[in-house]
Amino acid sequence: MSMWVAILLAAAGCYALKLLGFLMPAPLLEHPRVTAAAALLPVGVLVSLIVVQTVGGQERIVLDARLVGVAVALVAVLLRAPFLAVIVCAAAATALTRLIF
Fold first, then answer.
1. DSSP 24
2. Roughly what angle, to the nearest 10 degrees, separates helices 65-78 and 32-55?
3. Structure pTM?
């Protein structure tokens, strides 16, 4: 299968999924369980992206300075630090870890 066929199939699938969302009846979308699940989906997707980018390697799990940066960012978020402070702390921790090791 050529690359362009795969791209067109993926585009058609995305369009069909979007169209399916528009065709859903409003009472179904306003159900409390559906709204609660929809509110949690972005958090789950963001966490999974963070994990993949932090420990993902080519064909194996990589534990390096990025993990220290994410841990420091998590602590800063739990301490309710401003977003810019979270980013600066995580970047500094990652840089220091790379410098030391």
1. S
2. 140
3. 0.66
Structure tokens given for 47: 């966490």
- Cα(first)–Cα(last) distance of the chain, in Å? 45
Distance CA 30, CA 24 (A): 11
Q: What's the token pair of residue 91?
A: 């970047």
The residue to which tokens 């069909």 are assigned: 16
Q: Tokens 């709204």 appear where?
A: 35
Measured CA to CA, the distance from residue 87 to residue 90 in angstroms comes to 5
Listed as ranges, residues in the chain with pLDDT below 70 are 1
Cα angle at 85 between 82 and 87, to 5 degrees? 115
Backbone angles phi, psi at 61, to 5 degrees: -80, 135
Distance of CA 25 to the CA centre of its chain: 29
